[in-house]
Structures are given as C-alpha cells and as structure tokens.
Design brief:
Layout: H1 3-24, H2 32-48, E1 72-74, E2 83-85, H3 88-102, E3 108-115, E4 118-125, E5 128-134, E6 140-142, H4 145-148, E7 165-173, H5 176-188, H6 197-205, H7 210-215, E8 219-224, H8 236-245, E9 255-258, H9 260-273, E10 281-288, H10 291-297, E11 307-311, E12 316-328, E13 333-345, E14 348-354, H11 358-364, E15 371-377, E16 381-387, E17 412-413, E18 421-423, H12 429-440, H13 452-460, H14 475-479, H15 486-499, H16 504-510, H17 518-528, H18 531-536, H19 539-543, H20 550-561, H21 563-574, E19 597-601, H22 609-618, E20 622-624, E21 633-636, H23 642-650, E22 653-656, H24 657-666
Parallel strand pairs: 2-11, 19-20, 19-21, 21-22
Antiparallel strand pairs: 1-6, 3-9, 3-10, 4-5, 4-7, 7-8, 10-11, 12-13, 12-15, 13-14, 13-18, 15-16, 17-18
Helix pairs in contact: 1-2, 16-17
The structure holds 2-(butylsulfanyl)adenosine.
C-alpha cells in the first residue's frame, strides 16, 4: 500500500472511532478542532488520490444527489407494530398470558423507553450499510438510505468480525431542542410548524434532498435485532449488547427486569425522568427477554405476542375558550388563536393554542365559549383535541375570519387552494414590526441592541417606516427615546454601522422573503453572487439552482415583483449595505474584535490557525474551538466541515479567509513577514 493509501485507511478508522465516541457514546476523546483536522486531512488526501474513492468514507456522509422518489424495499422479516396497553391491568394481563403460555411463574423482561419517532430498518452487507428503509406498511417500506447516511449515529461501516449480513432496527427521532429550533426557524419564514418531534423527524427523513435531512440533526436509537438467534444469541438483552458492540447506539435507560413488578418500577421511574429526557417518549416497551420464549409465543397478524407497549396517559386538560383572536405574522398570514381560561397541562400553564387557519377552525368546530379538551402535542405545543359539544349551551359564538387586517385595516386575501388568509399590504404595521425584528435578529443582520422593545419605541416615535430607515438613524434620534442614553445610543449606531458589512446571505435572509430561510439565503447568495442577480433572476433561472423548487422560485419572483421591495433594497444599497458576495468597501475596525469570539475551521491558506488566533486575541477578541450561540464569527477556510454547518445552523456570521484578512487590515493589525505560509 502507498503511504497515502495507508494514511487514508488510518484516517477513516480514526474518524469512525471518534464519530462513534461523539455521536453514539456522547463521550468524545478529542476536541472538535482535532476532529476537523483529521477530517480535513482525509478530504485533502481523497481529493489528491481519486483512486482511493470509497462511498463509505466518513467524508462522504452527505450525498449530493436529489432522488426522484423513494424505491420500495421489501422487508425480509416484516416490521411489526406493538399492542398498546393503556393501564396497569392490561400489562398484568399480558404477563399472565405469557406465564400461562410458557408454564413459567416469573418472566424476565427487558423494559425500554418507547421513543416517539419513526421505525427504520438497516441492512449491512460485507460490513457496509447497504439499505436503510422506513417501516412503510410493515411488509414494504421506502428506501431512504441516502438520508439515513447523514445521521451521524448510524455507522456506515461495521467493525471487523461483524456478521457478513445483518439487519438491525431502531427509531429515528428528533431531539427536543432541535425540534424547537426547527420550528422557530420555520415560524420566522412563515412556514407551517411541525406539530411534534415525531412529525418533524418523519418529515426530515422523507426528503428527496439528503442535504435537508442532514441539516435537521436527526438521531437514532437501536432496539431490535431480528433473527438474533442466527448469531447464536439467546436473549434480547444480549442482542442489544451485541449490536452496541458493533457500534449501534442503544438507549442507556434500557433495563433488565426480573418479573413484571420490576417492569412497573421501570415504568414509574421513566415517567419521572420523562420531562428531563432530551427526546420524546410516549411509553415503555416491555419485551420477553429469552428468544426461545419469544419464538414459542409467536405473533398475531400484526404484532408479536412477546412484547407490548405501555402508553403513558396523554397530558390533557379541560378548559373554556374565552376568545378566538387573530394574529398577523411577519409574512402577513392571519392566524386564529384560541385564548383559554389558563389551565395546567402536565405541569405547564396553557392559555393559548394556535388554530392555524380558517379551515382548521371549521373542522374542529371550535367556538368562543366552548368547553374543550386540550393537550400538549408531542408534549410541547398545545392543541385543541376536541370540543365537548355535550356542554354547549347555544350561547357559543362561531368564529369568522375578519375581512380586514386586524393590524392595519386593509383588505385581506385568501387565494384559491391556500389555507392561509393574508394581509397583502407591505406597510402593515404588524408585518413591519415583525419584519424589523427579523431583520435585526441574529442570523439576519444581527444588530445588537435592536430588539423588540427598541423597535417598538422607534415605531412609536415614527422614526422608521421601512427596514431601510434603520440606516438613517443617528445617535441624536435615539437619545430622544425613552430609556436610551448616550452610551447605548452610540453602541447601537455602531452596531448598525457594522451590519453593513454582513455577508450577502445575511442580507437576503434579513429581507424576509417567504420560504427563504438561512440555508436558502446562503444558497441564493452563493449561486447568484449579488442581490442584483437575485432580483433579476427569472423563475426558470431560480429553478436551475439545486434544492430550489417551484414554490420557492415563485416566492422569490413575487417578492421582487413588488416595486416597494425593490425600492427597499435600493435604499439599503444606497445606505452602504453589502449587496454582493464580494466584501464591500467599508470594513469594520478594531472594535469588531473587542470582546468578540471567533472560531476557525477548515484549512487557512494565508496564515496558520495559531497566528490567526493570536491576532484575534491581541485585538481584544477570543478564539474558541467550538461553535455555540455565543460565537460571533466563524472563519471558514477551505474544506470547512461540521463547525461551518453548525455556524449556519445557529445563524452565526461566517467570514471567508479574505474577509478575515481584510478585517485584520482594517483593524491595523500587521501580520508581518512570517504571516504567510
Ligand atoms: S420494538 C418487534 N422497541 O414503537 C419489535 N419499538 O408501536 C418491534 N418504538 O414500530 C418494535 N421505541 O417504531 C420497539 N424500544 C422500542 C421502541 C419501539 C419506539 C416504536 C417502533 C414501533 C412502534 C410500535
């Protein structure tokens, strides 16, 4: 083997190991920086030696190709569902049936949290992931291999000595914080929210573009090895141990229980633990441990007799609808919202729930004055389950969607085929306020100090009518506002000034074009290079860009077909806001470094990372190795990987190496003769 070939093998091994430590065990042995360095080295070698190509290399997680649809996959062993039990009595009856059928007086069970996600089946051939499929109808699922490959806790390659062919099953899910983040982002784009993490996980996995799946940070727990006896295994517990040893992520809470009483203890313990778990569960699965007993007990038409799902009671409550109010979002969508008499639902006080749109209100037939049952869907977002119609008095009032916007009084519109009713006036104050908040927010123009309360003051004082007005504000204007002193006014003006040199993608995102979020803004900025090109792009031009579909293309074209929006962009440009991917003339000065946190990722070409970090520190900034919400800038060199992705996800400003060099120059920092490498 050549040196390069053996180093590539070694790097792949190392990266697989560290991947497993990080994503499966949650216990990394090396820093992100060290991991990135190994990954960069591998990518560089693979690029230099195309003959070493391997689709299973850790560098190849994210496939680029968009599939036209999902191929059907026949499950050699059907994927069964489980019988649900809703009370202790049914679970005792389950235990009694098993004791009777086996003639034993105590059964060993394995008790597992029932993860609220979607079931998948992975088949490995020759130690490599060959097919990953959804459950489908149990007999036939969908081939989602490309998407599953993007999930870091799924091994692409198994260790030496793994069976030649092996199928394992588990649950893909979305962690609660990731779910919140995703919905937050969707809300800011005026997109429909996912009702719960399970829907979000399913929606993220069934994506034609694996990059979308990759951006959703899904996770997986494995809980079943069909046909384990074929590997000489005798119990389910040992099967879990075996797959864990092959690198599959197995839930740590899973417990071996001697008899059904211990399973009840587990159920009670996990119920207590449930709110603190970072993932949603909807119950506990109880499985007979011994595989020979499982075999003897057999199956019914769609579920095994040896396992059952104990479901926790849904967190529901009864309350009364005081009112149905209509809120106007940033994109002008009118959302009817039920206002309740506040009520405790599983430890959280709930006083409102979205009724989404006119059709939803009709379908649920929710009226003002109704008694309703509500629950927190997926334990998070409150929703109306049903109206207690038996308790109607006849006094209830039906909801009617207003014909005019509650915020600005102009006429609203509901287009044929759309569920949403919208206010289409661009000068609508509800849209303006939300639009301004979005414009100044992190990920968009990131103007520190320009939050909702300052925006309200500016609106009240009549100082802004449009986002571009932000750039005409002077310290003098601000000092006149309640609670704003000279110092904070000066700071805000400086922050506004700094935002002019934000990347083009931030400006695009800040405009709040419906359906255009952070990722897409970046894509538009990168593919088209300037705001001008984005504004001029035709529907067909836009469709040429990968991942841009008809709806997005339509949205972008309609946005810029409105003269007012074009005018806003023109005014932003006139104010000096960067409108091309190239750095603008005005660059930030030393203040830009003071107290700021920088993270470097990828390979820097014009200086070493140590030098870059030293420069930041000498200008009063801080260099860190991991990206978080507190990071101010990520400087992305060549082949930047996971940190760059994380930065984009968090909306942290991303600088190219030339951007950074320019910033140093503006701050008067001399790299000196030894600066270049
Ligand atoms: S065992 C034959 N274990 O629940 C064994 N399922 O209601 C079948 N699920 O389709 C599955 N956590 O999607 C099993 N620890 C767990 C589980 C689990 C979640 C899901 C899975 C299954 C559904 C059945």
């Amino acid at each position: 083997m050549t040196d390069a070939a053996s180093r590539v093998v070694e790097l792949r091994e190392l990266l697989r190991h560290h991947n497993w430590r990080y994503y499966v065990l949650d216990d990394p042995e090396i820093t992100d920086a060290e991991y990135d360095a190994l990954m960069q080295e591998l990518i560089a070698l693979e690029e230099a030696h195309p003959e070493l190509y391997d689709p299973h290399s850790p560098s190849k997680r994210v496939g680029g190709a968009v599939s036209a649809g999902f191929e059907p996959v026949l499950h050699a062993i059907p994927m069964l569902s489980l019988a649900n039990m809703f009370d202790e009595g049914s679970l005792r009856a389950f235990d009694a049936r098993i004791k009777r059928a086996t003639g034993l007086d105590k059964i060993q069970y394995v008790a597992e949290p029932k993860i609220d996600g979607l079931a998948i089946s992975l088949t490995y051939e020759g130690g490599r992931l060959a097919v990953g499929a959804t459950r489908g109808d149990g007999e036939r699922g969908e081939d989602v291999t490309h998407n599953l490959r993007t999930i870091r806790s799924i091994p692409l390659v198994l260790p030496d000595g793994a069976p030649h062919v092996i199928t394992v099953r588990g649950e893909v899910y979305m962690r609660k914080p990731e779910f919140e983040r995703l919905n937050h982002e969707r809300a800011s784009r005026g997109e429909p929210l996912f009702a719960n993490p399970r829907n979000a996980a399913a929606g993220s996995l069934r994506q034609l573009d694996p990059r979308v799946t990759a951006s959703r940070n899904l996770d997986v727990f494995f809980y079943y090895l069909p046909d384990a006896e074929a590997y000489g295994i005798e119990t389910h517990w040992d099967a879990l141990e075996f797959i864990r040893s092959l690198g599959f992520r197995v839930n740590r809470e899973i417990t071996l229980c001697d008899g059904i009483e211990e399973a009840f203890e587990f159920i009670h313990r996990v119920a207590e633990l449930r709110p603190a778990l970072p993932y949603e569960i909807d119950g506990v699965v109880v499985k007979v441990n011994r595989l020979n007993l499982q075999r003897d007990l057999g199956l019914t038409s769609h579920s095994p007799r040896w396992a059952s799902a104990y479901k926790y009671p849904a967190k529901q409550a009864r309350t009364r609808v005081r009112d149905i109010v209509v809120q106007v979002g940033r994109t002008g969508v009118l959302t009817p919202t039920a206002v309740f008499e506040p009520v405790d639902v599983g430890g959280v006080t709930v006083s409102r729930a979205s009724l989404h749109n006119e059709d939803y209100v009709r379908a649920k037939d929710v009226r003002v004055g109704d008694v309703v049952m509500i629950q927190r869907a997926g334990d998070v977002i409150p929703e109306v389950v049903r109206v207690v119609t038996e308790e109607r008095t006849g006094e209830e009032r039906e909801f009617e969607m207003p014909r005019t916007c509650p915020a600005c009084g102009s006429e609203v519109l509901r287009e044929a085929g759309e569920a949403a009713t919208r206010c289409i006036s661009l000068s609508c104050p509800a849209r303006l306020r939300e639009g301004l908040i979005h414009f100044a927010s992190k990920g968009a123009m990131d103007i520190e100090g320009l939050g909702p309360s300052t925006i309200d003051k500016l609106l009240d004082a009549g100082l802004i009518r449009d986002v571009a007005d932000i750039y005409s504000l002077t310290a003098y204007d601000l000092i006149g506002l309640e609670g704003i002193r000279e110092k904070s006014a000066a700071k805000l003006v400086a922050a506004i000034e700094r935002s002019k040199s934000n990347g083009l993608q931030q400006v695009v995102f800040a405009l709040g074009i419906p359906l255009v979020g952070i990722t897409l803004s970046k894509l538009l900025a990168e593919s088209l290079g300037s705001m001008d090109a984005i504004m001029r792009a035709s529907y067909d031009d836009l469709l040429e860009i990968p991942t841009v579909g008809p709806e997005i293309a339509d949205s972008v074209v309609s946005f810029f077909s409105l003269e007012m929006n074009v005018e806003t962009v023109r005014r932003l440009a006139a104010a000096g806001v960067r409108m091309s991917a190239e750095p603008a003339e005005a660059r930030p000065a030393a203040a830009e470094f003071d107290g700021k946190t920088f993270v470097f990722t990828g390979t820097l070409t014009s200086l070493t990372r140590q030098k870059a970090e030293k420069a930041v520190e000498s200008l009063g900034g801080r260099a860190s190795s991991s990206v978080s919400g507190k990071t101010d800038y990520v400087v992305a060199g060549e082949n930047a990987g996971s940190k760059l992705a994380r930065a984009r996800e968090l909306g942290v400003a991303v600088l190219t190496e030339p951007d950074f060099a320019e910033m140093l120059k503006q701050a008067g920092y001399e790299l000196g003769d030894d600066g270049g490498e």
